[in-house]
Amino acid sequence: MNMKNTKTLTRVALLVAIELVMKMVGLGSVPVGPLYMSFLTLPIAVGAITMGPAVGALLGGVFGAVSFYDAITGASAMTGALFQVSPVNTFILCVGMRVLMGLCCGLIFSGLKRFDKPGTWSYIVSAMSAPFLNTVFFMGWIVLAFYGCDYVQNLVSVKGAANPFMFVVLLVGVQGVAEFLVSGILGGIVARAVAKFVK
């Protein structure tokens, strides 16, 4: 194994460790109603931007595995209830959607950096795509796979949502915007700093 591969593996392992520590100490997921305001997209964005889409997918998978564990154990009220409805669709929701999010974040950066040679805005925009896509993919799969189940229909009724789109907007609410801004801006700043450091 050459020096470059060793450095890459070390950086990936460090980001995985950061994800797990953030989760364990409560910094990764802040409960807000039935959902969690998740900042675990931050290390995923940093990895996807600085090391590519495959690393983004891998880190997304780590986030997904932690989320699926919460579903199995009932630590998350929402995914725990959805696991009782369909374990397979809950696995796709927790793991599949997060792998896709990490992959897409890396692909978005790969595309944007061609138009941003100085690296002034592509880092922030790409990092913001991580929490945005996490919400879109996660809530999109809930609507596609679980919208008709009693648990989700109860949430629809409580929120007074007239349709699936309004359900997503009302459920995600302010915490979605906060997650988007905090994770996105911080992720972009950190990713740019890391990219300069490892050059």
TrEMBL record:
This is ECF transporter S component. It comes from the Bacteria. Keywords: Membrane, Transmembrane, Transmembrane helix. GO terms for molecular function: transmembrane transporter activity. The chain crosses the membrane at residues 12-30, 36-59, 90-109, 121-147, 167-191.
